[in-house]
Amino acid sequence: MSQASAVLDQTPRVRAAGKQDPVTEPRIVRWVLTSIALVFLMLFLAVPLAAVFYEAFRKGVGYYFESLADPDAWAAIKLTLLVAAIAVPLNLAFGLAASWAIAKFEFKGRALLTTLIDLPFSVSPVISGLIYVLMFGAQGWFGPWLAEHDTQIIFAVPGIVLATVFVTFPFVARELIPLMQAQGNDEEEAAHVLGASGWQIFRRVTLPNVKWGLLYGVILCNARAMGEFGAVSVVSGHIRGQTDTMPLHVEILYNEYNFSAAFAVASLLALLALVTLGLKLIAERGMAVASSSRSAESIK
Fold this sequence. Notes:
Blueprint: H1 3-16, H2 27-56, H3 61-69, H4 71-104, H5 110-117, H6 119-122, H7 125-136, H8 143-148, H9 157-168, H10 170-183, H11 186-193, H12 198-209, H13 211-227, H14 230-236, H15 246-255, H16 259-299
Helix pairs in contact: 2-16, 3-16, 4-9, 4-10, 4-13, 7-9, 7-14, 9-13, 9-14, 10-13, 11-12, 13-16, 15-16
């Protein structure tokens, strides 16, 4: 019997004798670390979240729903949903195409494309909004041409959509690229040998393998699209009832000292965040189950 095997055989007896497990932290250390984490979460997450809902309902349930039914608030809610409904599918299409190209093929400019995908993570949202103003504003590069054709992008819905798409487009691609790279090309190559077309390979092989990662990226993209403030604030013009999204409307109400109405709209954003968190947990579990299944199949 080798020395390693002897050590393994003695491990249960060592634990049975009451000695400390060498690969586990002492119980006091685990309790301290867990307590610190729980206190941090309570102070910086649970308490502020509870305060939002407390302030939202402080004047009663009737006032809460009146604040949400206000024409300006309702316009902000509809605009937020509209922008997310446009930006998320666009980012979904881009993320799928970019991740498939980067993970499955070798081509010139591959590294550059990967770098450009990460660009919104390194650029301030306010700067990205100013870039669109520089391009499409009245004094911008394309401003005179847009004015001649009676087309408005800045201080209108198209500008808000562009800014939102820019700050959210890395999320889907960044979730799918490492997942596709880890899976490799074996299944796609086998399907190609069997005569499947490119579309059939993508629809029946690639897409089912990344469905949970795709859902995870879409959830994160949607959450950022609904909660984006910086870039949208620059390009919206803060036209009340027309170009104000929910985060911008919360700011306006708060600056007007209408705190209960501001927290009412903020609580709706918080509810959307909680729903997003629940969907995120479902997607994470799905990804874990899929990864375990693939690992078991590879071992067999």
